Amino acid sequence: EWLAALRTPSDPKALGRVAGELIRFVTVSDNPDPLTREGLPHAARQLILRQRGVLDLVLAAAEAPLTAAGAEGAGSEPSVPSKAQQELSRSASSMATGALSSSVKEMKRALTLCMVLFRHLLRGHDANKDYAMRFVPRLQLMLGLGIRSAGALTEVFLENESVLKLVTDKHVAKFISLIREVGRQARYTKFLTVLCQCGGLPIRVNPV
Predict the structure, then answer these.
(1) pLDDT at residue 205, rounded to an integer
(2) H helices within the chain, ranges in order?
(3) Geometric angle at alpha carbon 141, from 140 and 144, rounded to 5°
(4) Tens digit of pLDDT for each residue in 88-120?
(5) Is the pLDDT of residue 58 over 70?
(6) Which of 10, 16, 35, 116 has the fewest Cβ atoms within 10 Å of its own Cβ atom?
(7) What pLDDT does residue 69 have?
(8) For residues 87 and 83, what is the distance between their CA atoms, to the nearest angstrom?
(9) How far, rounded to the nearest angstrom, does the alpha carbon of residue 114 sit from its chain's CA centroid?
(10) Residues 169-200 as b or e (16 or more Cβ within 10 Å = b)
(11) Rounded to 5 degrees, what are φ and ψ at 201?
């Protein structure tokens, strides 16, 4: 059921439910709310889900409603953003969530849960982080939509020296652009901070 819902994410409510169940599956916590649940990561389950292709599927599921207007497909920035992407972008920049239609609110919750799940699949798991490095350009296309993609992207690099050494100027440019547009929001400045150090020590090849 989990894999089927991720492979055919046409129903945001079902997608959100499955993402929430998987968040609870890969974390150890008494908090039942998947949007705020943290606790400890379950390493064995993180690995199992990555091996079952869940990282790939959850990212593709989150991309689906955002690329509906573009013929380029997942992982490419559509020449004309979908209506949902335009609404999410306006909402994120203005914080006017009340202006969203009920259908877009449901979709935003589902996409947010997908990004939260993506982050939990990486927490403290270097092998999963190394694998997720391939998704960085696709995650960057989701920044600025208010679906917590910045947290998912930050987790790829957090405390992982082997990945940090692969950082390029392109990985940093989008965050710098967002900071210039919307100000020094914590989720964007945290990413830049993560790029500069590992285990409390500076990463000299990335003097952001």
Answers:
(1) 47
(2) 2-7, 12-25, 43-51, 54-63, 83-94, 102-122, 126-132, 136-140, 149-157, 161-164, 169-182, 186-196
(3) 85
(4) 777 666 555 556 778 888 989 999 999 999 999
(5) yes
(6) 10
(7) 46
(8) 6
(9) 7
(10) eebeebbeebeeeeeeeeebeebbebbeebee
(11) -105, 145
Query: Residue with structure tokens 């150090």?
Result: 197
Provide the sign of the torsion angle of the four alpha carbons 38, 43, 47, 48, taken in this order. Answer: negative
Is residue 78 predicted with pLDDT exceeding 90? no
Beta strand pairing status for 27-28 and 40-41?
A: antiparallel
Residue 15 in tokens: 């997608």
Amino acid at 183: G
Phi first, then psi: what are they for 200, rounded to 5°? 80, -5
- Residues 24, 38, 1, CA angle at the centre, nearest 5°? 20
200: left (phi over 0), alpha (psi -120 to 50) or beta: left
Residue 92 contacts by C-beta under 8 Å, 6 or more apart in sequence?
Answer: 144, 145, 146
Q: At what angle do helices 43-51 and 54-63 cross, to 10 degrees?
A: 70
Q: How far apart are the first and last CA of the chain?
A: 43
Is the pTM value of this prediction over 0.70? yes
